[in-house]
DNA sequence: CTGAAAGCGCTTACAG
DNA sequence: CTGAAAGCGCTTACAG
């Protein structure tokens, strides 16, 4: 039950003023070595730690940053968070986590809270709904309140803020070219996120790589049963020899359909998915995937936010940083 | 650029005192309806919101709670967090997230921070290392500082705190009995977490169900290659007809080895794993699993913490709440 | 070298 | 009904 000791109590015990104690603990040159030592000794004895709330009030800052996550079950975002947290830890900042569950309504509530002065800055990946509706008023309200804002991952939004993204387009451009260079003829693409920004970019990369020379084979739908039908058609009718999947759902669906249709991966069908390592390497056969380096996305976002907070960037000019993906080959792309 | 307006500024604009403004905004009966209205109107116009840091200092609380997570890539913990966050949101509390990465050293640092008064209470699942070493001094220091503490998931620790767990033992007892009742003879168990609390409990459930009547078939190792060998031996030499897996790693390894050894699931081998739905239902064949209801673990932990904070529990007496698991049958246990 | 004072932004007993 | 004062726990210019 060592209830926290305050400066005032320390001062009384030492028979000096609160100011003296405070200065001594901050190694102020104003204080004599002797009293400085006395103060520090007693402070250590009582394990004194300044009340962070009081310090923050005095400094007019909070020492915390807010992170908005659309969906924490998505391991990409979970790992982004871990990158953010690691970075914050080094800088002794606290991370307040908010989960929007892909809902714009919830996102609005969160942004509303955030403008009340709970945090020094905000990292956000906007919800799918927000992207669909393209309503960004709540984000602009953060900007209006001068709360530094960094968008991560879902950055295809016209708003004056720093951004950290993933090179979605290039990842699929490269992956498609990988197959082209190996002489694969029918290359298909499956997507359950064709309607959102990152989905569009990945599809664009695929289309650019094909560049009219090869026929496109697309299976896109947000409805699982629809998507299943379309992928099945790609595999059995179009007989694609390679399939790129833009997201977890389509990836898993594709491996599933191949299994059901008795199509051997990788001998008859090469597969590349957009999923995390934890799952990719444990599928049967193990699945080649595009690694997005989520931890780096998180730490980069945090780094940019801190630079912004420390005034290292010019106001009105914004950073946009893109983290390179890598194509990790496991069994499903063996030739 | 609407920089935040303060009570003082509001007061000046209205030509009243700060106290009057504060009271008016809190619907104090001391204030005349007329001024109350004037104040509220201007407050709304300027979108006034009390500075939470100041309010917290005044109230001597922080309005935030700290959550310590061993490993956020584990979807169980990610979903626990989402349960916590949802509950916190309703109560208008902030959730500060810390990730220990299963390291006791990091956990100590976190607990040290937490004793400085950053949060009103703490929810923690201790790291594996902490469990192994059984060093809980840092947890006791939270207790010493009178910071309410709720352990979740990993609760097999002798410490005066509230706890929310999962009925690990019963889950495996029931699962094993499920097979026994169907006349399955050789029932095996695979584990990569046999050395930690929850692993031990699951194994215990299995052993109790077998109760000497049936032979045990255990494959346990923390070394992937070791575990692989042992599971393979279970499947090919012991020829188990059913296999229970205590964790993600052993579950995936088992499906993998069955595939490689050309053992058909579920006709030749029934499988039950301890993994999340997202992955379970997308494996091939889909994998029956034990659902732990992580979101409920999180919201229950939060509920207990809030009750504790509100003084609804007797000091010195602690709650222990167990969330029931359910066995979800997918393809891998079809008879 | 030390301490009194002001102030961060708020709330609330108390006086008028 | 309104406002001055004290105080939450701290920091820091300023006076002595």
Structural overview:
The structure is a homodimer of 335-residue chains. With 335 residues, chain A is an alpha/beta fold. Chain A has three domains: 7-50, no CATH class; 62-166 and 294-323, Response regulator (Rossmann fold, 3-Layer(aba) Sandwich), CATH 3.40.50.2300; 168-292 and 327-333, Response regulator (Rossmann fold), CATH 3.40.50. In chain A, 47% of the residues are buried. Helices cover 45% and strands 16% of the residues of chain A. Chain A is elongated, with a radius of gyration of 26 Å. Chain A is built from 14 helices and twelve strands. In chain A, helix 1 (7-14) packs across helix 2 (18-25) and helix 5 (75-90) crosses helix 14 (294-309). The mean pLDDT of chain A is 93. Chain A has helices spanning 7-14, 18-25, 33-45, 52-59, 75-90, 104-114, 128-133, 137-144, 168-181, 197-210, 224-236, 248-260, 277-280, 294-309; strands at 64-69, 94-99, 121-124, 149-152, 162-166, 187-191, 217-220, 242-245, 270-273, 288-291, 320-323, 326-328. The first copy, chain A, has a six-stranded parallel beta sheet, with helices on both faces. A six-stranded mixed beta sheet of chain A has the order 7-6-8-9-10-12, sandwiched between helices. Chains A, B: This is LacI family transcriptional regulator. Chains A, B: Residues 4-39 form the HTH cro/C1-type domain. Chains A, B: Pfam families: LacI, Peripla_BP_3.
